[in-house]
Amino acid sequence: MAVRGASAVSLPEDWPAHPDPILALNRMGSFDWDLDTGLFHMDAQAHEVFDLLPGEYDGHPESLYARVPQPEVARIDAMVAQAIKDGSENYGGYFRIRCRDGRLRWTHTQGYIRRDDTGRPRRVVGIVRDATEELAESEVRSLRAAQDEAFRQQTNVVQAVSAALAHARSVQDVIDALKDTRGIRHLGATSLVMGLVEAGRIRLVAEGPVEASVPGTRITRIDEPYPMSEVVRTLLPRFIESPEEFAEGYPILWPHITDLHITSAAYLPLIAQARPVGAMGLLYSDRRGFSAEERAVLVALGSTVAQSLQRAMLYEQEKDLAQGLQQAMLPRTIPSVRGADVAVRYRAGTAAGALGRDIGGDWYDLIPLPGGRVGAVIGDVQGHDTHAAAVMGQLRIVLRAYAAEGHTPAAVMARASVFLHELDTDRFATCLYAEADLSTGVVQAVRAGHIDPLIRHGDGSCHRVPVEGGLPLGLSAEFGRLEYPVSTLELDPGHTLLLCTDGLVEKPGADLDDGMRGLSELVAAGPEDVRALADRLILLAEERGGDDDVALLLLRRRAPEAPPAGGRLQQHVAPGDPAALSQARHLIRAAVRSWGYRDRADEIELVADELMTNALMHTEGSAIVTLRALDGGHRRLRIEVEDSSSALPRRREAGEDGVSGRGLLLVDMLADEWGVEARGGGKAVWCEFRRGG
Question: What are φ and ψ of residue 203, in 5° steps?
Answer without folding.
Answer: -100, 125
